[in-house]
Specification:
31% helix, 4-stranded parallel beta sheet, Rossmann fold, 7 helices, alpha/beta
Length: 246
Amino acid sequence: MAITRLAVERGWEIYLLNRGNRDASDLPTAKLADGAPAVKQIVADIYDEADVAKKIADLQFDVVCDFIAFHYSALERDYRLFKNKTEQFMYISSASAYQKPLSDYRITEGTPLANPYWEYSRNKIAGEEFLMKMYREEGFPMTIVRPSHTYDERRIPLGVHGKKGSWQVAKRMLEGKPVIIHGDGTSLWTMTHNSDFAKGFVGLMGSVHTMCPLNSWRQWGTSTVLILRAVLLATRPTPWCLKTPS
């Protein structure tokens, strides 16, 4: 939502394609210069390709962004749907795609992509490889972004959480119960609030300098212990931690 809010503040016209299951009351209500709503919804299931193709048949986009492509087949579908309909396609990959274990703690665009430990990451890598192939062979105008851990008012910035989300960790803290952290707590993590992520992401939209290569989302790293302590300041109690290899 932070990206949508910032784009609307800049006077852009936004189309949100989703299934319409969430309450839309928190969507920006701004108007364009012609009086039309700045935010429009296309209610459809992206996995119903025929229905989506029908609903976007008369539309052209400056930028198309996919935040929920978790398998390369989803990007094959996106390519079929948008290859002649957008000036830029932006794919949300993941910083977890980078080499594991790292040969250097400093991650750059030159860091190899290899994660034998997590299928999610391998699927993200496969998606990137497909888009790079389409760029090389067809000139498909794509941009790849690899965010790390993004959080907002609904998600606490913690790497380990329960089945119902990160708020379960806060509940354990309030109850004085132990919580789990990665390794010995000294590994570095990048945490980005969604409003900060939005500034960088929106800045990539429509930029001729980001058409095709990769753009990694990088910040200074913070240890998991310091992140946990920041959460403790908000929850007040002093829990103890169980450390687990990672």
